[in-house]
Amino acid sequence: MRTAVSYVLVAAAGLIAWSCGQTGAKNELNSRPKITERRTQTFDFGTARQGVTIEHTFQLTNPGTAPVKVGRVQTTCGCTAAKVEKNTVIEPGKSLELPVKLNLRGKKGAIESKVIVNYADGATPDELVLKGAAAEEYTPSVDFTPFKRGEQPEQIVTLATYPGQQPLAVSHIKFDTQKFDITSRPGAKDGTVDVVIKPRPDAPFGSVADQIVVTTNDADAPDKFILVRAHVTKPLEAVVRQVVLRPGADGEPVSTIVEFKSTYGDPVSEVTASITREKRFTATIEPDAPDGTVRVRVAFRPGDKAKKSKIPAQLRVRASVGGVEVEEHVGVLYTTEPDTPAAKQQVEAGDADAHETDRF
User: Which residue of 12, 247, 268, 347 has the fewest C-beta atoms within 10 A of its own C-beta?
Assistant: First the structure.
């Protein structure tokens, strides 16, 4: 009987030892000392050409006595790319190469971008920094002041031959032909090329934009990127883009007049107005002003006490202007908060949640 008990005790001891061994194996990454200090590596690339891609390989070293598993890799700019296979383990005393790319497309002046390497086992993240400057060789963006449809204001971007390169020549220009007319011609100075940008006379009404790609014979940076933005005046445009309503001192309903003008002087007819969140707002067409300006009164309905201090909506006005059907939008915000820059920013951000179901 005593011998049988001894066998049972030995077996139990063996089972416990095996179980502990398995638990230790599973927790190996978490039971040993980890990286506890944030380490920062910086690569200064100096001054680089506009539009080129900077490439650098960082070394991630594990100075501890336990393996570390690489988790999520984050970047502070969409122009930066860093990729490493998920769950990659760096053994103690070993290093991992992490290639990083920084695209200087559209950049100019001082630049700093960071890559944050997180570790799955709770070790302190590493910070990788790329810094330097992009030399502005040409204007990377063009903005037209508002103009009427049919007009063709002109903007010129001059591209110059970079030192050490052959005389610059343009082989192709990629752009939206429904919005702009773009050509190239020799510049006033030797070795330069002028890119001439004009909106099409029949460009669509409202805000238009395009990313132009000018392909050249530049060996280091053949593609030149130019962002073009313009606004073609609509036949009917709101005088203001956003309005803010606040409760009066007596708690009475508050309202304001929103005006819309016929920018081309054409007659306006068949005007309709609507507004989102009809439980809280009303939109009523008022008599036109003497100069033909369309006037719409926007009012807030107090109703039961609202649960939110900010209630956004969107006013839509449709009309026939000179026989052309047009639609114009204005952001509306009712707020009980004081008139502050933060409140104005809420309106400028648009009516992102204006279509949510009222929750009162």
Answer: 12
Candidates 211, 237, 215, 240; CA nearest to 226 is 211
* Residues 118/32, Cβ–Cβ less than 8 Å: no
Tell me the C-alpha distance between 173 and 196, whole Å: 11
Long-range contacts of 91-95 (CB under 8 A, 24+ apart): 91/62, 91/67, 92/62, 92/64, 92/65, 92/66, 92/67, 93/62, 93/63, 94/61, 94/62, 95/59, 95/60, 95/61, 95/62
Helix (H, G, I), strand (E, B) or coil at 110: strand
101 close to 123: Cβ distance less than 8 angstroms:
no
Strand partners, 319: 326
Q: Which CATH number fits domain 41-135: 2.60.40.1180, 2.60.40.10, 3.40.1160.10, 1.20.58.340?
A: 2.60.40.10
Query: Quick one: pLDDT at residue 278?
Result: 93
Encode pLDDT of 52-74 as tens digits: 899 999 999 988 888 889 988 99
Q: What is the pTM of this model?
A: 0.65
Cβ neighbour number for residue 235 with a 10 Å cutoff: 23
What stretch(es) of the chain map to CATH 2.60.40.10? 41-135, 141-233, 236-348
User: Residues of 137-162 as b/e, b for ≥16 C-beta within 10 angstroms?
Assistant: bbebebebeeeebeeeeebebebebb
CA distance 255 to 238: 17
Amino acid at the residue 183: T
Q: Where are the alpha helices (DSSP H) in the chain?
A: 2-26, 28-31, 341-348
- Rounded CA separation 296/273 (Å): 7
Between 136 and 169, the higher pLDDT residue:
169
